[in-house]
Write a structure and sequence with these properties.
heterodimer, A: about 325 residues, alpha+beta, Jelly Rolls, 10 helices, 19 strands, about 30% helix, B: about 200 residues, mainly alpha, Rna Polymerase Sigma Factor, Chain: A, Arc Repressor Mutant, subunit A, 9 helices, about 0% strand
């Protein structure tokens, strides 16, 4: 009998959950002397018994019971089940960060005015800027950042709506803090991407190198330290329901490239549903896309688009899955 | 009477206020629960306090013991919850290393080994303590506390399949060590006979 098979039967025997058939098979196997020996020693090892002198602790326990009945016992432990957050075993470090919630229009501008005066905004284009301290920022379309006037000297605070990629120069004495919607990111000298468009429920932060601490501004205990290749997704929906609002995943390098591919006008997608891919295509090519097939919406595609025209891109998609499309000025319609 | 039936009976008796039954339950489970808690807390003191406090709570709330469907699982799950709540509440606590030689830990806690070869026992213990955490917990619950795989599954919130698989892997690890050891220290009659023959043949 194969050794693994024998081990499996043995483990069932040891947990006392071996079936009649299995026992017969085991007996058969035990005709092999080496196996017999192994089994014997293992059974002996399993027969070890722990003995504890419990008299002392037992008396102590009764004393505690007496105290409790008098009402003088202080309870230390909580034996009830609490909702387990998915990532409770992740290393959490508290990074105390102050929140400034970015509002739209006047309100936002008011906050911005208090200590942040410079505004950088994009509509249909992307911009690249180097700040006074050497920090480099790429701003995607439909995005804006504001930062304090004397950026770099005594504070470095940036407020973002939309999407930006930051390559931050490390200045130990002056931490750099990015406020994106409800999330605050304290930066230690590093490169990372933040996706915080206002009309999206989720805020995503992907770390390329260095280390950053991300905190929920409305619940400062909820804070995560990211490592390179980590991507954090914050969902205010789940925060409302009191579930863990931070989800951190570790990305494969190709996927990390995807997070920052908008930088180079490259569109990289990996097993993405057409319904999720369409807005990205729309942004890259400045078109509106309509998908007129429920099935197509759910179909997944993988690929990379760099210099293709929209026509070529759609033709490429068509190669992987039957679809038809029409392009009429700025409107693209996809059907099956 | 199976362990399961015994503990059910004890719970019934304790509900009636039977202190002897309580002491019996304590004697049976106190050490096991400490060992289990220790796997999470890595600190003996909190494991001991936790175990004691659970029994206190059990006595104080004995009127409701009949509501507990599975007493054994209940004890372990309560300890597990307390450990996880403790760990979560105290994140600043440094992650402590798992101390192997538990025979030194509690006062008067002795391990009776049926395995004659001390060296072999030491090797096997070391192997067990070096297992990945969840596998180690599962293995110890089955080996030391005599729990069934479905009970372990329920306590830890895993599938029975996972538990069986982890047990299998643990046993496999130990089997490797045993095989290697027995190869160097032949204990079979055949091997001894062979050795004897060799010695006899030497001039």
């Amino acid at each position: 009998m194969e050794k693994d098979q024998f081990i499996l039967l043995l483990s069932k025997k040891l947990s006392k959950e071996i079936s009649v058939t299995e026992q017969m098979q085991l007996d058969q196997a035990l005709q092999n002397e080496a196996y017999q020996q192994l089994a014997d020693q293992m059974e002996l090892y399993f027969a070890e018994k722990k003995k504890l002198n419990f008299k002392g602790p037992l008396e102590a326990t009764w004393s505690r019971i007496a105290e409790a009945e008098k009402g003088t016992l202080v309870n230390g432990f909580d034996f009830s089940a609490h909702q387990q957050s998915l990532f409770s075993s992740t290393l959490f470090k508290a990074a105390a960060v102050v929140v400034v919630i970015f509002g739209i229009g006047l309100i936002g501008y008011y906050f911005a005015n208090r200590s942040q005066t410079t505004l950088l905004a994009t509509t249909d284009h992307k911009i690249f800027k180097v700040l006074e301290d050497g920090t480099r920022i790429w701003l995607n379309k439909q995005s804006s950042i504001t930062y304090n006037e004397d950026f770099g000297k005594q504070q470095r605070e940036i407020t973002l709506t939309g999407e930006a990629y930051f390559d931050v120069v490390k200045i130990a004495a002056v931490p750099l803090i990015v406020h994106a919607g409800r999330v605050n990111i304290e930066v230690k000298g590093t490169a990372f991407n933040v996706n915080a468009y206002q009309n999206n429920d989720g805020i995503e932060v992907a770390l390329v190198r260095g280390s950053i601490a991300v905190t929920d501004s409305q619940n400062s205990k909820n804070s995560v330290l990211l490592r390179p290749n980590d991507k954090l997704v914050f969902s205010s929906q789940s925060a409302l329901q009191n579930q863990n609002s931070f989800k951190v995943m570790v990305l494969q390098p190709e996927l990390l490239l995807k997070e920052t591919s908008w930088l180079a006008d490259t569109l990289v997608f990996h097993k993405e549903k057409l319904i999720d891919l369409a807005p990205k295509l729309a942004k890259k090519y400045d078109v509106s896309i309509e998908i007129r097939s429920e099935k197509l919406k759910e179909t997944r595609f993988s690929g990379t688009f760099t210099n293709e025209t929209i026509d070529q891109a759609l033709a490429a998609l068509k190669l992987s899955y039957p679809l038809t499309y029409t392009i009429n000025k700025q409107l693209v319609i996809i059907k099956d | 009477m199976s362990e399961k039936e015994k503990i059910k009976l004890l719970f019934q008796e304790i509900q009636q206020g039977n202190k002897t039954a309580f002491n019996e339950l304590f004697a049976t489970y106190y050490a096991k629960l400490i060992a289990f808690a220790y796997q999470y807390t890595k600190q003996l003191e909190s494991a001991e306090e936790m175990s004691s406090e659970l029994f206190v709570k059990l006595w104080l709330k004995r009127a409701q013991l009949s509501k507990v469907l599975n007493p054994e699982v209940y004890l372990y799950v309560s300890i597990k919850n307390a450990c996880l709540n403790l760990i979560r509440a105290d994140k600043k606590r440094p992650v402590l290393p798992y101390i192997e030689d538990q025979s030194m830990l509690a006062d008067g806690m002795a391990v009776e080994s049926k395995l004659e070869d001390k060296e072999l026992t030491r090797l096997l213990n070391h192997a067990v303590n070096s297992l990945p955490e969840q596998r180690r917990i599962i293995f110890k619950l089955i080996k030391e506390d005599g729990l069934k795989t479905n009970e372990v599954a329920e306590i830890l919130g895993l599938s029975k399949r996972t538990v069986e698989n982890q047990l299998y892997k643990a046993v496999k690890t130990l089997a490797e060590i045993l095989s290697a050891y027995l190869g160097y220290h032949p204990q079979s009659k055949t091997a001894r006979r062979q050795l004897a023959v060799i010695f006899l043949m030497l001039p």
